[in-house]
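Is zinc ion placement plausible here? Inputs below.
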Amino acid sequence: MLRWIYPSLCELCHEPCEGELCEACIAKLPAVPLPICLYCGSPVVGSQEDPMRCPQCRAASHDYDFARSAYLMNDSTRHLVHSLKYRHANYLAPIMGELLNRLWEDTPQLMQPGRYCIVPVPAARAHLFARGYNQAEEIARALGKLRKLPVACPLKRISTAEESQTRLSAGERRLNAMRSYAVRSAYASGKRVLPGENVVLVDDVYTTGSTARACAKLLRKLPGVRRVGVLTLIRARGRRERI
Ligand SMILES: [Zn+2]
Ligand SMILES: [Zn+2]
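Reply from A.M.:
I modeled the complex. Tokens:
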């Protein structure tokens, strides 16, 4: 009703538009350039020995089946993710779900037949208390609505060490992430099961991949899970691009 009285403005250019972002601004968002590492989805530079794997992935453990991100970090994508995360701008979740849906349709692994379900990366209790919602879950629910797929929350965040994570080394971050997530008791006891064997883990930003790896490792242990893919809106390159 309010939207009918006050036509909405594009979050980025502030011109009147139908939804939260105009198509002109969406077209200007920095898509992840090809070629990408076929495992983690990071852009890779031309001549490398193994075009399938970036150097980091050749060394790291392979806990998920593949990860893909829609956009790189720049002022526009940072503004969108930052607004959803810290400025109570959960009206942006539907457009982020829509952008992830476009990424889904460009991802051949996700177009194969099978039962899919969407799982958001859980937020810390302190974050939930301060913001009232988990931005990853908001995006996951918007994506689930568009794809008519169930959204399940089998994971929980068990530590609030997030704030200090930026000062940790890559190895320490991995360990810290492993200790930060757990399976909810209803799923651990088998009282609840995931509504699909192909799990799509959703988050707003992929930085080092330590969160995705830790969550995927837990999801893989749940009964019936065959594949775990990871979709994020933004691919940050290194710690300086952290939100
Ligand atoms: Zn615009
Ligand atoms: Zn990689």
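Short version: Strands lie at 66-72, 116-120, 155-157, 181-183, 198-206, 227-235.
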